[in-house]
Amino acid sequence: MNEFSVVCHVLGMLFYRHPQDPLLTPLFTLIQAGKLQQQHWPME
Predict the structure, then answer these.
(1) How many domains does the chain have?
(2) How does pLDDT run across 11-37, given as a tens digit for each residue?
(3) Which pLDDT belongs to residue 6?
(4) Cβ neighbours of residue 29 under 8 Å, at least 6 residues apart?
(5) Do 42 and 2 meet the contact criterion of CB atoms below 8 Å apart?
(6) pTM of the predicted model, to two decimals?
(7) Domain residues for 28?
(8) ∠ CA 19-10-28 to the nearest 5 degrees?
């Protein structure tokens, strides 16, 4: 999966899934831990 696909997948999950969806739990954990900050984001 290329970097653009990863960005699209993450944003798509945030926009199309209900906030309490269990599939979003790992993503919210990464966001809360600061693991998706700019230096870790795959695109400029």
Answers:
(1) 1
(2) 899 999 999 999 999 989 988 998 777
(3) 80
(4) none
(5) no
(6) 0.67
(7) 1-44
(8) 45
